[in-house]
Amino acid sequence: MSKYDELYNKIRKEIVSGQLLPGAKLPSIRKAAVIYGVSRTTVQNAYFSLAADGFIISEPQSGYYIAYRKAKESDEKKHTGKSNILYDLKSGSADKNSFELSLWRRYMKNALRQDEKLLSYGEAQGEYELRDVLSDYIRDKRNVISSPNRIVIGAGHQSLLGILCSLIDERNTVSFPDKSFVQGASLFGDYGFDVKYRFKDAEIIYVSPSHMNERGDIMPNRRRMELVEYSSRNGSLIIEDDYESDFQYNSSPAPSLHALAGGSNIVYIGSFSNLLLPSIRISFMVLTEELAEKYEREIYKYNQTAGKTEQIALSQYIRDGHLKAQIRKTRRFYTSKTKAFCAQLSEEFSNAEIEISENALKIIMCVPFRKSTDIFEKNGISVLIEGCENGMLKMILNPSAVPQNMLHSAVKALKKAII
To answer: How far is CA 402 from the centre of its chain?
Structure first.
């Protein structure tokens, strides 16, 4: 392939894929020749061909621009934020009534007044005052014993897992509960780990005991003890994602693996997105002593990803006791909503099997169904479909994002789509 063809195909691919957006200006012929390491004639011929094929246009005295191209409907929704979904029964997003935003704004405003703290870069490991208050919080709440020096703050699990992957020397086999753990499995795969699912002989085992799968099942205590004993016997590292441990409504909160193992061979990960707001992207990780020592030696490699202002606000919010109050409020709020939604579903679907999940956040419904599953989106409903076979549809419904006064209309919309 000639250099002209290569350059033409490269720019064309960037336009078609959307990397170069309509209206964007291309480099001048002289500058493009330097960028791509080709002659001006090659660039000029490539630009002429792109213009002839309608991909770019030439503006006299100005240069070359990407030609206007009408965005696809999906792209328009993506960039405008518009969606046809009226009833989100899939994402698990927060209900605005579950969190007192005005109180959080006061803490954020107070954090923004702390000029001296905001004039410096944040600590790579996370603000010490937040790590200090978290050390007390996880000890009281989950019996996880850790000094602030073993806690690492990050903006979401993904950033923390990236740090963890870089700290583990050998690229061993890592096992995930199932393929719904897409982001974690992809990240470990990108770092060169051998990713498997439900593989009992893995050197690294990733588990989420309080939310084992999309149904919200909780790991039994017997299985927790088996995992701890296996880790102790084989020296395997367990990554305990304690996601939704505060939402075990139907049973007493089970002990953390970290507490059962005394912290040995366990990396504990927690987050505040579900307790506060999804947009408050603050998660934390408790490293083992060995990994914490290595992190301290190599801390120069890392930057903090969570906002310093939010960390300052959250540390005071927790210290003043608001997080404990928020947990109690959230439990009552979502318990009531799930039960109400389940009762309304039972009234409308007399021939369906309906049950509340173990963590009481979701509803599993199995109902006769003879249509295409596209019908849900057409009726403005977003649902998670677990299976559809033999004339039966099994769905996992999470009503948390649907306002209380819209639960009944959501049930009616479901009925219209299914029957």
So the answer is: 20
For the cut 60, the answer to whether the pLDDT of residue 280 exceeds it is yes
Mean pLDDT of 55-65: 83
**How many Å apart are CA 29 and CA 31, to the nearest integer?**
6
φ, ψ (nearest 5 deg) of residue 300: -65, -15
Phi-psi sector, 113: left (phi>0), alpha (psi -120 to 50), beta: alpha
Q: Is the pTM of this model over 0.90?
A: no
Q: In what order do the strands lie in the sheet with 151-154?
A: 151-154, 283-286, 266-271, 237-241, 204-207, 173-176, 194-197
CA 199 to chain centre: 24
Helices and strands, counts by H and E, the chain: 16, 15
- Look at residue 249 and tell me whether its pLDDT is greater than 60: no
- Find all residues with CB under 8 Å of 13, minimum gap 6, and list them: none
CA distance 145 to 124: 22
DSSP output for 247-270: G--SSPPPPPHHHHHTTTTEEEEE
Task: Give the chain's end-to-end CA distance (angstroms, integer).
Answer: 57
